[in-house]
Amino acid sequence: MDLSKVIARKDEAAQYMIDEITHICKDFETRSPGTKGELQSCEYMAEVLKNECGCDSAEVESFKENPGSFFGWIFFTITFVLLAIPLFFIAPICSAILIAAGLVIVFLQFGLYKKAVDRFFPELTGHNVTAIKKPAGEVKRRILFNGHPDAAWEWPVNYMLGGVGFEAHAIIGFAGAFYFLAIAIIQTVKYGIAAGANPSDTMGKLGLWGLIFVPFIFTLYFMSNDRKVVDIKIEKVFRKLFTQKGVKVTKTEVLFIAEAFRCYSTKYIKLYDGVLDLLDTLKAKGKKVYLLSNAQRSFTENELNMFDLTKYFDGICISSDEECSKPDEKYFKTLFDRYGLEKSESIMIGNDYISDIGGAADFGIDSLYIHQSISPEIDGELRSTYKVMDGDVYKIKKLIITYIHINNIINFFF
């Protein structure tokens, strides 16, 4: 198979991929598995496959999934192994059984993609794209392309220690599991199923030495953080693109390019009916209003100024500055710590039942959900304290002023 023509265009292909990835990260909602952002990405992918790649058909298919289960084996396996360690000194056969069960769960769930623990995690509707491009001549082979439009969850250990540190941490943790499995089996075979390991004997001492694995095993609980979808700063993306092309740009130039890009890629922008009246009323009543936004500062700041909205806010947090986003509890805590807010005096208003309302519930504050045309389809529990399902902003004013006696209003939908 002659790939010389493809190889000759590798730089062009690489630039195309960078441009497309930048577009998806910038313009679409966060793409946690089973969310509206994932669906938007799939629909866009299908459009590109048909219009730019010449596919005869490209269909977006839905399917049921349990996203939390992909790394859900961690909670089962690590718990089993940690319980097995003290059991080695009491009932080594039980220790061996627990560790073996934990390792089987890893192998089935993560290795073979079997649904070993899916039933223990919420079910969502995910989406996939299937495209077909018919051959122009004789059929010699079939080619299948696969990609993931959903976003990766944060791997905290990878961020702290780097790729090598991340892999070493996982290897040492699992080495500890196999170590205790081996000595539990030896203890059982050598002394019987009822004989626990004596710390003063050889096997018992091996068990005590094995305790050095415990910190590595325990911290595997924190290998993945499914409450945080990593955010980016779009200026960094543009700077990297210029650097790859050998073009030197200043910070001001990069910021201007990002702002211009937003302007040229936005068809229209307007306020929802009743937003200004609501903000005026809140401020007249002495309420504090804060913005906690999943957005790019280079985009949002201009739009706030364009509608003269900045003056209404007593504090603003934007996800691209913090490099984290809702529903991450850390992002909520950043706002509360920065402005000295009290949970009991605050309410979150939002139109996303996962990022806004789910994040507020996990953080421990009241929330008011307003359903709007851009709101993701509710596929699960709506955990809001109050709700306005018809998108009427004027109802929010009535609720806040008449019934909800609270001082700090967080987030806003424009």
Features of the shown structure:
single chain, 414 residues, alpha/beta, six-stranded parallel beta sheet, two-stranded antiparallel ribbon, 16 helices, 50% helix, globular
Description:
With 414 residues, the chain is an alpha/beta fold. A six-stranded parallel sheet has the order 6-5-10-7-8-9, sandwiched between helices. A two-stranded antiparallel sheet has the order 1-2. A two-stranded antiparallel ribbon has the order 3-4. Helix 15 links the parallel strand 7 and strand 8. The model has no long low-confidence stretch (mean pLDDT 83).
Question: What's the helix and strand layout?
Answer:
Layout lengths: L3 H5 L1 H18 L8 H16 L5 E9 L7 H15 L4 H20 L12 E9 L20 E2 L1 H36 L10 H8 L4 H5 L6 E5 L4 H11 L6 H15 L9 H10 L3 E6 L3 H10 L8 E4 H4 L6 H11 L6 E5 L2 H11 L2 E5 L15 E3 L4 H11 L4 E3 L4
Parallel strand pairs: 5-6, 5-10, 7-8, 7-10, 8-9
Antiparallel strand pairs: 1-2, 3-4
